Structures are given as structure tokens and as C-alpha cells.
Amino acid sequence: MPAHASSHREAPYITTRPKVDGTDFYMFRSYEGVSADGTGGRSDYVTLIANYLPLQDPYGGPNYFSLDPDALYEIHIDNNGDSREDITFQFRFKNNRKNVQLDIGDKKVAIPLIQAGQVADRNAAALNVNETYSVSIVRGDRRNGTRSAITNAAEWQQPLSTSRWTTSAPRPSPTTPAYAAKHIYSVNIPGCGQPGKVFVGQRKEPIRGQSRDHLRSGQCAGIGDHQSEPDQRSAKHHSTTPTSPRWRSKSTRVA
User: Fold this and answer.
1) What three-state secondary structure class fits 124?
2) Which domain holds residue 109?
3) How many domains does the chain have?
4) Cβ atoms 130, 98 nearer than 8 A
């Protein structure tokens, strides 16, 4: 069922389906390894970032935040300014439950949780649910165009989602950045001469601000003591799908 609604929870319908709530989209020329004059490294690549499932709180466990296996997540690219997609990246997700059992009294009992201990690798024994995904590229109309699979040498997995950047939340690994880095995949994109990169997983909310006052009456925050209060969104997260294909970005527009 399509989710025809705006993001950021201002549309009543999308509040009932937060897993498909697309909150932010970013597109920029990659700066990985790029020199001061803008050359070298991945300067010929464009990074696309789509965020979903906003306001992920530290207390949202123990079954934290996964994307919807019944939904189709898409990033549309308009290359010629006619407000129609020329390229679409499609993401589909699947939850694979391993049926981990624990000794409870004199019985083996399958747990309903996503983990049964610390998780530091993609296939950790304590991980009860692996969230995998596939990515396709569609050229032309997103429903009737030419669809090709974006391939990778191994099965793609999303890292365990917890509110792991806050000190109050249980951490999946003592070295969380290294754990997340294991889920960055080099991929082959049909039609691109060089491999790209894909990552799907939870990232810290990048937008800071006093949104409370905007939501009260549609007016900007005034000057007062509340301006010095901590931003509550600094402890919140979302799930993100960055993709980095190699394209010349001169005429690229996002539909």
C-alpha cells in the first residue's frame, strides 16, 4: 500500500506508519579523500542519503528499530529537470529470525528479542534477527523502466539498531564505529564504470534546533531562557540509506 503522505509527522496518515516516514534527503558531491582544490579521492562520486523512521529514542528497546519488510523504499533522480524520475534506487528489507534459545529453568526457550547478548559482528551468535536487504536500480519510469540488481559479493545486512550513540542505551559493541563500518559495502551498479558504496543503518539525528517553538504556533523561537535548554533531538536517531554511485553531478536534480 503506497504511503501518500508528507514526512516529519505533519501529515496525519504517516503518523500511523512511522517505518515509512521519510524525514530528510541529502545529496552532495563526495568529499572522501578529496584534496583542497576539489580533485582526487571520490570527487567524481555523488552521495545520496535518505532518512526514515524518525525520533528513535534510547528507551525504545529491547526490540529496537527495523525498517518495514512490506515496504518499498525509493530514491528518485531526475537528470533533465522534467520532474520525472530518470533513475530510481529501490531498497527492500527482510528480517531473518534465527530462533535463538536460552536456558530457562530446565527448558530451552526461544526468545522474542533481536539479541541475546553483545553484538560485535554481522553474524554474531547473540544476534537473533538479521535484517538483510536488496537494492535495485531502475532506469526510466520507476514502475515500467529497466530494472537491474545492484550486486555485492556478500549478503547485505543492516547493523543492529539501538540508540547506541547515547550513554544511557545498551551498546551493541564496545567499538560501535568499527561495528557499523562492517556494514559499508562496495557494490557494482549496472551502467556505472566504477563500484559504489552502500550503507543502511541507524545514524544520529543531524538536525539540531528548537523545533518545539515552531510546533506551538508556527512562529520562530523568541529570545528567552528556553534557548539555553538542551536540544532533546540530540539523543534521537533515524535509519538512513546512503548510496554513493559514481556520477558526474553537474546536471543532476532530485525529484
Assistant:
1) coil
2) 13-254
3) 1
4) yes
User: Which residue type sits at 232?
Assistant: Q
Concatenating the DSSP letter of every residue in 37-69 gives TS-STTTTBEEEEEEEEEEE-TTS-SS-----T
Q: pTM, whole model, 2 decimals? A: 0.76
pLDDT digits (tens, 9 = 90+) for 69-125: 999 999 999 999 999 999 999 999 998 889 999 999 999 999 988 888 888 888 888
Beta bridge partners of 24: 51
Which pLDDT does position 89 carry in this prediction? 95
pLDDT lower than 50: segments of the chain = 1, 3, 5-7, 162-174, 209-228, 247-255
Q: Is 6 part of any domain?
A: no
**Phi (first) and psi of residue 121, to 5 degrees:** -145, 165
Q: Which residue has the cell 524520475?
A: 85
Answer yes or no: is 1 within a domain.
no
User: Between the CA of residue 116 and those of 71, 102, 113, 127, 163, what are the distances in Å?
Assistant: 27, 8, 7, 6, 17
Q: Which residues pair with 27 in a beta bridge?
A: 48
Whether the CA torsion 197, 200, 202, 204 is positive or negative: it is: positive
Residue 5 lies in a domain: no
Query: Does residue 213 lie within any of the structural domains?
Result: yes
Write the pLDDT tens digit of every residue in 36-49.
Answer: 998 888 888 999 99
